[in-house]
Write a structure and sequence with these properties.
This is Dihydroorotase. The radius of gyration is 21 Å and the shape is globular. Helices cover 29% and strands 22% of the residues. The chain has a single domain, classed as Metal-dependent hydrolases (TIM Barrel). It has 428 residues and is an alpha/beta fold. Helix 1 packs across helix 2 and helix 4 packs across helix 6. Strands 1, 2, 3, 4, 5, 16, 17, 18 and 19 form a 9-stranded mixed sheet that branches. A 5-stranded parallel sheet has the order 9-10-13-14-15. A 3-stranded parallel sheet has the order 6-7-8. The longest helix has 18 residues.
């Protein structure tokens, strides 16, 4: 069994400590630990976090391997500090059966760069008409606990209610892509001043907010768990805050790009800024940051959405929606939340590791950095500053909105059960 000593790291941003890894487990945390027989990682000035957990990743395999594969996606995850990702169901074929989710789960096991937990579809083919094999997916080797038609909204209230009732039996959760389809027909960007000036079809905030309002009421009615994907408006924040004040079992996520970018960027007509839900206003961005800080929004999730070049390097109206995010997420959170004083590093650990693992009921992840715990760890250099260069990405796709933008922080090491998947910034 190999030993690794991480020397002088600021655990959760606190005082410098040594962390000794022995095999798959953290053996000791303290100062002046014995390095005999151990590989030493010098971590002076770096911050040590529990391995990051993403509740919203698109790995595209099976069916769209031109965009991403489980292998390339998990390599990107390791570079970003993630030790576990939840793979969304909108693959080809859709992950709506035990067979497909097990295929994704096994591909994740084979990759070795991070754990892959499949998300099962709520409805057959993501068509919103008939419940998928929720129980069979849960009982499969993949042990699915999160279900979502992400990319599409479960807009039928009866279907949504039945899904919430069904997953309650095994403490599952339905993750809703909140988008009222009739209100977003022909929509190209956020509905507001910029869309009016550009003459692009508007995507109103109420299209998101109306579905969230309905679903928190449904979740309360059946006493089940609902999770709101990629929340993006100030109004959505207020609805979730109200639902939580009632004690209802509602959680929500925000993406890094919705914490930083606004609809003003669409003036460039660069399709790299086309995303679902769309980039919103500065007021929305500030409301999302405050909500993440006060816990109304529980987690940061990437919504990593890779696309081949031809699907983004085209006119705005024809471009696919989505951005890659696994390799830049922690840097964006540092810029928007840590360096603004809204969160400390312990708060980052909660929003990007502990809470997503808890929502996904993912054992072995999101654990404290203490003796006896699994050695799933992320080491980040917060002093680093550098421009984003997608040419160096491990992801198969390059559709990042941050190309050329200077961002702080860099993940230098990622450990999955004591084994380095990233060492000194290089994939193991």
């Amino acid at each position: 069994m190999s030993k690794i000593l991480i020397r002088g790291a600021k655990v959760l941003g606190g005082e410098a400590q040594d962390v000794l890894i022995d095999g798959e487990t953290i053996a000791a945390v303290g100062t002046g630990l014995d390095a005999s027989g151990a590989q030493v990682v010098e971590a002076d000035g770096k911050v040590l976090l529990p391995g990051l957990v993403d509740l919203h990743t698109h790995l595209r395999e099976p069916g769209r391997e031109d965009s991403e594969t489980v292998l390339t996606g998990t390599k990107a995850a390791a570079r970003g500090g993630w030790t576990a990702v939840h793979a969304m169901a909108n693959t080809f074929p859709v992950a709506d059966t035990a067979g497909v989710v097990e295929q994704v789960w096994r591909l994740g096991k084979e990759s070795g760069y991070c754990d892959v937990q499949p998300i099962g579809a709520v409805t057959v083919g993501l068509e919103g008409k008939q419940l998928a094999e929720l129980g069979a997916m849960h009982d499969s080797a993949a042990g699915v606990r999160v279900f979502s038609d992400d990319g599409k909204c479960v807009d039928d209230a009866v279907i949504m209610r039945r899904a919430l009732e069904y997953v309650k039996a095994f403490d599952g959760v339905v993750a809703q892509h909140a988008q009222e389809p009739r209100l977003t027909e022909g929509a190209q960007m956020n509905e507001g001043l910029v869309s009016a000036e550009l003459g692009l079809g508007g995507w109103p905030a109420v299209a998101e907010e109306s579905i969230i309002a309905r679903d928190v009421l449904l979740a309360a009615h059946v006493d089940s768990r609902v999770h709101i994907c990629h929340l993006s408006t100030a109004g959505s924040v207020e609805i979730v805050r109200w639902a939580k004040s009632k004690g209802w079992n509602v959680t929500a996520e925000v993406t890094p790009h919705h914490l930083l970018l606004t609809d003003e960027l669409v003036r460039s007509y660069n399709p790299v800024y086309k995303v679902n839900p769309p980039l919103r206003t500065e007021a929305d961005v500030l409301a999302l940051r405050e909500a993440l800080a006060d816990g109304t929004i529980d987690i940061v999730a990437t919504d990593h959405a890779p696309h081949p070049r031809e699907d983004k390097d085209c006119e705005w109206a024809a471009a696919a929606m989505g951005m890659v995010g696994l390799e830049t997420a922690l840097s964006v959170v540092q810029a928007t939340m840590v360096e603004t004083g809204l969160l400390d590093w312990a708060g980052v650990a909660d929003r990007m590791s502990l809470a997503p693992a808890r929502i996904g009921r993912l054992a072995g992840h999101g654990r404290p950095v203490s003796a006896g715990e699994p050695a799933n760890l992320t080491l980040v250099d917060p002093a680093y500053r550098g421009a984003v260069d997608p040419a160096g990405f491990a992801s198969r796709s390059r559709n990042t909105p941050y190309e050329g933008r200077e961002l702080p922080g860099r993940v230098t090491h990622t450990f999955l059960r004591g084994r380095a998947t990233l060492m000194d910034g290089n994939l193991a």
